[in-house]
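Ticket reopened. Same input as before:
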Amino acid sequence: MDRRHFLSSLAALPLLAHAAPTPGRYERLLILVELKGGNDGLNTLIPYADAEYSRLRPRLAIPRDQVVQLGESAGLHPALASLKPLWDGGELAWAQGVGYPEPNLSHFRSIEIWETGSASQEYLSDGWLARVFRAAPPPAGFAAAGVSVATEGMGPLLGARAVSVSDPAGFVNRARLVNVAARPANGALAHLLKVGEDIRTAAQGLDAHTEFKTEFPRHRFGQACQAAARVAAGRNVAAIRVSHDGFDTHGGQANVHERLLRELAEGVLALRAALLEKDLWRDTLLMSYAEFGRRPRENGSGGTDHGTAAPHFLLGGGVKGGLYGQAPSLSRLDGGNLVHTVDFRGLYATVIERWWGGDARAALGGKFPTLDCV
Amino acid sequence: MPTHRLIVPLLLCWLSFPALAGMGFDEARHLLVRATFGADAASIEQFAQFSRRQAVARLLEGGASVTITQPPAWAEAPFDDPARLRDLSEEEKRQYLRERQREGVELRAWWLREMRNTPLPLAEKMTLFWHNHFATAMQKVKSGQLLYRQNLTLRRHALGNFGELLHAVAKDPAMLIYLDTVRSRRDAPNENFAREVMELFTLGEGHYREGDIKEAARAFTGWGLERGQGEFRFHPARHDSGEKTIFGQTGRFDGDDVLDLLLARPETAEFIVGKLWLEFVSPEKDEREIRRLARLFRDNRYEIRPLLMALFTSDAFYAAKNRGALVKSPVELVLGTLIALELPIDDLRPYAFVTRNLGQDLFNPPNVKGWPGGAAWIDSDTLLRRKQFLARLGRAAEMPGEAMRMRREQEGGGLAMRAEFALTRAGRQMDLGGWLSGLPGPDRRQTARAVLLALPATETARAGDDAEYVARLLQDPVYQLK
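Engineering reply: fixed in the latest deploy. New output:
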């Protein structure tokens, strides 16, 4: 019996489905930050003390004296220097070597694996958060279980009671145009009617006009963070997803990556400041994800090709800062790629169990060790 | 002669009972809305008289590469190499990118105008299909000229031969830049193109190994640009001429050899047909039917016309369960509306902004996989934007304040604002009631429904004047379907 089959047969058993404990902690918010295109983890959380690092990257290695050192082995890209105070304050954790067995190097397949929370050879249709919310729904009074902000598609929220919003005020305004109708429908029409219903529900609850003293950066990611802060301020969604796009740096990586990381830090810092203003930071957890990291050895175009494992950050008022998991070895590569040390579903289990107080097994189809960082 | 006396009334009889001889109104509408960008009442009635085969033959008529309007002047001017961007000062760089942005709008408007007015709408539709299949984006290529040239290549082969198309696109300058082939060298091959040509252009994910990609990347080294003209050039010094092993075959393969290896594999035809299926027939794949069509495609050596003839005359295409089963793309929604409502609009620049806001920025797909399409066209954000666009068209007059508010909500500044005002003007000019009163049939509202909706409306319309009636049909969820 494959796992999908197993899960669906599990859901068909009412007793078992009801046996899952209901988490009551959706007042705690998860904000997922997608690093779209596959972030170069080795130039983000840098193993600067490893001689292999500069050997593999004659052009791209960040010189040791420019690395923002977090300890004896790892440090941040200088474009992330503004996050150092958060590290010092114990709000920033890094999960190292995050990936999965039998890595797939296609953007599209690998992000599907990440967003559905599947195994490499397993095909699931719903996002992992949709399954979490199905097992333990957020309060009916919430505007939505999740909101995907200023990015394409629903990602991990696909299949959940969720909406996609680029501008909260415009969203609420235009929602008037939707009329809710019920009728037998083919797949496409059923989808349209469901989206309409989610819009109506969300528009009644979304707080579109919260103002912050915090100024948000004008770049795209900064503006997405502002929209995310508005949605968060309503305190009536369980998860928000934002994306930062452009990490597919096959060529001329140095400048592009520097800018992307700087924008990432600026956006995240503004989001933190805004949520501190509203006394929400304690109840907020930011976590990054991406389809993969990049190849340790740089290519001939001053860039890096698709890779496997990468570090991801967890950031928030309730986070226990530090480095978690093992940094992957640079000398024991598999086909030129890093071997993961932390399964990405362990990060999801950490969110479900430690952040929301739920049971991760139903949503993830198995037990994955959590990280002690929240 | 007596025979004539017999034939003429028979002929008249045949013409006046088209349902007996032809495919009829509903099938004609279904075909035209799927295989072209939309249809007005008159063309549906015309096609209703044809058999399926006659209708599709009509759509497949004509040569390729026809463009009927002048492209923007810069499109065919001497090549302006985007690589010179590197040598510009910050201020010049900004100026350069502003110019490209303006060109981008003109280019999108030009293509929309072609789509709106072409006498060969299926060739045009397939050009868009191939643009989505061989997705290449302005974002990275940064040259309207190269994307214009790529568009000419796509339309030249749109209904021709897929193998020739694949070879042409692989050497297309915009593609060479977009997937980093120009950066690839024998001592450090870049895998980007080698991976995507297998995963997205031919075989599909799971039908190759990582090792095949690494070896194929070596074969494509040396493919690059002649920078002065912006044309393909082979650089022997950069090429790795050694032996490669791909799909278990070993040889001194070059890029063209790799493409031929890909074309020789049966997965390629199935992958392309599967994609056509999702685009034109149904979101649910019928694997048996897809295999049948894929075999036909291979037997015809990747000729596209016979494949489309088989697809668009198949019973599966016309099956009741597949009617209204697909979501209109933004381009189909926008142009389909202009076409069905017979709106004479010549400047399509504003509509380039509309399709972008709805998630389909022509010449700028989100990534190399193209637009995800299908149900993914609709999320809460894009659904509301669609409805707002249709509401604006449907409103006879609109407050300028509304347009200003819209503008604040959108990025893009000046050009986008002018687009908003132009749309408002279009809305003022549009007379939905007048359109309805010009429709044929004893029950004009019934005809309007038949022209506009693929399935019965979700709401039974209340009383109201004709203009309101049409405006409500445009707001019905079913209007989003084809």
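Chain B touches chain A through 51 residues (CB under 8 Å). Residues 330-480 of chain B form one domain. Please confirm and we'll close it.
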